[in-house]
Amino acid sequence: MSSSLLVAGHRLEAVWHGPAGDAAPTLVFLHEGLGSVSTWRDVPLELAARTGCGALVYSRIGYGASEPVALPRPLTYMHEEAALLPAVLDAAGVRRAILVGHSDGASIAIIHAGSGGAGTRLLGLVLEAPHVFVENLSVASIAASRDAYTTGDLRTRLARHHHDVEGAFWGWNRAWLDPGFRSWNIESFLPRITVPILAIQGEGDPYGTLAQIEAVERVAAGPFARLILPDCGHAPHRDQRDAALDAIARFALARVAESG
Questions:
Q1: CB 3.0 to 4.6 Å from 32: which of 3, 103, 198, 248, for a disulfide?
Q2: Taking the domain 2-259, which CATH number applies?
Q3: Where are the domains of the chain?
């Protein structure tokens, strides 16, 4: 069901699948740095059907059909999104949540879960290709995406998903390529995460190495499981859909069973 959410005075594009938030736990999908509701395709719908959970998919401010964002984005933009997430969940009526974060969305999930404000609502985290610190590989690939946007067809492809494609791209790209962003690091949030984590990474991810999820496994306080996929890039739910969705569904069903 397509709708919108009014959060802190901003209107956000949102879609809901499956049972309402007071009837079952909710899978909350947090998109990547250039993502939106539409870039998830039918993944939320399928996972809702396979798990019996609700699924909330929304575009953060500046993405998809949500309100545009003022540029430049602050280098703390993921921290700000994590701070806003409780209000998003409240506006959508989510009572128990399993966060499914991809790339930037996974980092936002980590910050939210490790900030101490998630409480008993949070049942678990699915982290697809998370970033917890900045690697040279990430910077090089994001610099290459700038060239693909200005001289290739990336702008055209992104325009299918974003009403304000310039704001969506440059807000993300310029933040990551700012020299001050090289010191960005969210490992300090990990020791306060006690809920179960499923981390999924592609062996061929051009935006991050296995050092990212190894840091999560080493420092996070809760139960941890990993899935490393061959022949897979930055988006396991697209590149290795069956394996990724099977693992996410099993993880979500286990969290639902544990929550009663």
A1: 103
A2: 3.40.50.1820
A3: 2-259
